[in-house]
Write a sequence for this structure.
C-alpha cells in the first residue's frame, strides 16, 4: 500500500499538469512561428528588411493578403505551404498584424 501513494499522486497530478500546459499556447503560437519562420528576414519586430523583406510595421496588407503571400510566396519571400499548416499560417499572419 505504501508504494501506491506516489503512483496515485502521479495519476492525480498528471492530468492537471497537462491541462495547465496548453493554456499559454494559443497567444504564443503565432509569435513562436513568427520567430522561427519570419524573423530571419523580417526581424523580431518586423522592421529588419533583410533579403529585400518589406517592413511589416508599414504593410497595408490585410489578413487575407498576408495569408495568400505567406502560403504562396512572392519574389524573394518563400512559400510556406510545405512548412506550415493553414491554422499555423493563420496564427503567424495574425501575429504579424500585431507588429506596429
Ligand atoms: C527569406 C526571407 C523572408 C522570409 C523568411 C519571410 N519573408 Fe516576408 N517578405 C520577404 C520579402 C523579400 C518580401 C517582399 C516580397 C515582394 O513584394 O516581392 C516580403 C514581404 C512580406 C509581406 C508583405 C509586406 C508588404 O505589405 O509589402 C508580408 C505580410 C510578409 N512578408 C510576411 C511574412 C511572414 C508572416 C513570414 C513568416 C511566415 C515571412 N514573411 C517570411 C522576405 C521574407
Amino acid at each position: 500500500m505504501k508504494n501506491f501513494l506516489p503512483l496515485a499522486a502521479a495519476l492525480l497530478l498528471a492530468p492537471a499538469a497537462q491541462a495547465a500546459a496548453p493554456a499559454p499556447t494559443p497567444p504564443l503560437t503565432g509569435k513562436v512561428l513568427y520567430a522561427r519562420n519570419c524573423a530571419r528576414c523580417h526581424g523580431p519586430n518586423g522592421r529588419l528588411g533583410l533579403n529585400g523583406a518589406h517592413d511589416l510595421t508599414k504593410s497595408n496588407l490585410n489578413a487575407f493578403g498576408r495569408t495568400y503571400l505567406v502560403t504562396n510566396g512572392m519574389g524573394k519571400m518563400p512559400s510556406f505551404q510545405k512548412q506550415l499548416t493553414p491554422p499555423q499560417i493563420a496564427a503567424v499572419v495574425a501575429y504579424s498584424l500585431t507588429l506596429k
